[in-house]
RNA sequence: UCCUCAGUAGCUCAAUGGUAGAGCAUUCGGCUGUUAACCGAAGGGUUCCUGGUUCGAGUCCAGGCUGAGGAGCCA
């Protein structure tokens, strides 16, 4: 019985006859020799089919294969410097599972394509080497995030996707009919629920999709994206910053360890990633404003950073920046105010270098009942909907905090790619939600 | 919602207001070591839509549609 292997395993089978199942990536041929390039999801394998060594009908079949036809190739693995992957396979047999017809050829040719065409054909474009590298790194990042939290005492407690009330205005929420005329909203964050589960487990995290109905149309925005959100009981802003820093160093290290090939494919400057070490630069919002003024930004104290401000702050830095102590005026209702400065809150944003902007946002939450009630009122939020959240401040309230990290922004930064839409298999952007 | 840019062959793009073209893909032919192979040939067009200016519009004008980039927005 000939063993079925993947292309990634070829190195362990040199000199053996094996079988690889995949798709025809490309085909180069002359009259009496053909080089089908096989793709199996694990790598590329150059196959060599020599006319004189094969039955005539089989050689003709190989010679006339079409791009992305599904095939199962049997042959002997051989190390060869002329092959792109270092190994090649001398074809002994080839079974065509499905042949792509010439009348309707595979639309994505090896030459250039525009972004519109690639997004229309995203279900096929994900077969390409670039998408394969990016999505492989995405997988590594997610696995690293989970390994980090799992090995630091955090329990994964998933939070609901359907939520009952708008936390802050319905304009950025997707509304759905839950049943009859009862409305529910797709989650924007699991944080409030995390605050409840943290009181049950001590340290928790959730990881899932989040939905924002914003009319944002930039390289940093998706309408559906994935977010990991840890939350810790008995934690302060400093604890939150330390965990965020440690986690980011850990995931970048994992990608460098396990995904060199993919980074090379993306032409990522890995020295930029190797520089991601603790401690990150830390500054307050006040200090950030001062730096921005020196760099000519028109930003006023009390404004949130714009995209260009984030770029200005990070452009000459090797490491991420942690900015904390923001004006309470533009931050959410649940942030704990600074003890010495009631006009600023204990929130922190982590800005990635190279202009990738905010990848982490979080901070310390209000734990005092009266203050929370006051803030809910100030923000004109429906108190009834927050009753369960208010309860958390009645029954053993403690200082606590956490953060959220958008997976796609982190992956775009680590990959060094221009647009966040490439970091998810099927991106949902403002005007495109298919395929 | 606003600003900017774009729309020509299946794809990526050319074409001074004057005969609509190339490369890739497809088809046919050639080639025993190719590396997005190469060489020769063929087929392939509602130039996004509607209207206008002009002897003549892919090109200029008006409106619309679609897409992209950005702004605002972004717990």
The CATH superfamily title of the largest domain: Bira Bifunctional Protein, Domain 2
Named at the architecture level, the CATH assignment of the largest domain is 2-Layer Sandwich
What's the helix-strand series?
EEEHEEHHHEEEEHEEHHHEHHEEEHHEH
Largest sheet: 8 strands, mixed
Overall SS class: alpha+beta
Number of distinct helices: 13
Give the helix proportion (percent range).
25-40%
Low-confidence stretches: none
Radius of gyration over C-alpha positions, nearest whole angstrom:
26 Å
Count of beta strands = 16
User: For the residues shown, what is the average pLDDT?
Assistant: 91
> What fraction of the residues are assigned to beta strands by DSSP?
25-35%
Could you say how many structural domains there are in total? 2
- Any idea of the CATH topology of the largest domain? BirA Bifunctional Protein, domain 2
Which descriptor suits the 3D outline? elongated
CATH class of the largest domain: Alpha Beta
**C-alpha end-to-end distance:** 41 Å
Biggest sheet, spatial arrangement of strands? 6-10-11-16-15-14-13-12
């Amino acid at each position: 019985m000939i063993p079925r292997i993947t292309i990634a395993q070829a190195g362990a089978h040199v000199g053996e006859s094996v079988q690889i199942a995949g798709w025809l990536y490309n085909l180069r041929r002359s009259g009496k020799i053909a080089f089908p390039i096989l793709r199996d999801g694990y790598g590329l394998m150059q196959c060599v089919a020599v006319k004189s060594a094969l039955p005539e009908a089989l050689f003709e079949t190989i010679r006339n294969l079409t791009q992305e036809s599904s095939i199962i190739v049997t042959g002997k693995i051989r190390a060869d410097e002329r092959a792109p992957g270092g190994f090649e396979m001398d074809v002994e047999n080839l079974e065509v599972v499905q042949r792509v017809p010439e009348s309707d050829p595979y639309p994505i040719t090896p030459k250039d394509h525009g972004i519109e065409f690639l997004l229309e054909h995203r279900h096929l474009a994900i077969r390409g080497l670039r998408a394969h590298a990016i999505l492989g790194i995405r997988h590594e990042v997610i696995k690293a995030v989970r390994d980090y939290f799992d090995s630091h005492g955090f329990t994964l407690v998933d939070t609901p996707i359907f939520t009952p009330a708008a936390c802050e205005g319905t304009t950025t929420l997707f509304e759905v009919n839950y049943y009859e005329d009862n409305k529910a909203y797709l989650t924007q964050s699991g944080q409030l629920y995390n605050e409840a589960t943290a009181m049950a487990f001590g340290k928790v995290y959730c990881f899932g999709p989040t939905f924002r109905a914003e009319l944002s149309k930039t390289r940093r925005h998706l309408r559906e994206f994935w977010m990991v959100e840890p939350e810790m009981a008995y934690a302060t802003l400093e604890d939150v910053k330390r965990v965020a820093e440690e986690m980011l160093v850990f995931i970048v290290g994992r990608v460098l360890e396990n995904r060199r090939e993919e980074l090379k494919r993306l032409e990522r400057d890995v020295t930029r990633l190797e520089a991601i070490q603790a401690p990150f630069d830390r500054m307050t919002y006040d200090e950030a404003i001062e730096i921005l003024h020196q760099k000519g930004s028109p930003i006023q104290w009390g404004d949130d950073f714009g995209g260009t401000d984030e770029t200005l702050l990070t452009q000459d830095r090797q490491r991420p920046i942690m900015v904390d102590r923001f004006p309470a005026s533009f931050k959410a209702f649940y942030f704990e105010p600074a003890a010495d400065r009631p006009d600023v809150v204990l929130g922190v944003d982590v800005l990635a270098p190279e202009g990738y902007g905010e990848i982490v946002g979080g901070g310390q939450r209000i734990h005092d009942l009266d203050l929370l009630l006051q803030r809910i009122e100030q923000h004109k939020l429906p108190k009834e909907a927050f009753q369960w959240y208010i309860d958390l401040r009645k029954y053993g309230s403690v200082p606590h905090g956490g953060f959220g990290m958008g997976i796609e922004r982190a992956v775009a930064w680590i990959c060094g790619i221009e647009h966040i839409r490439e970091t998810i298999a099927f991106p949902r952007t403002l005007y495109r939600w298919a395929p």
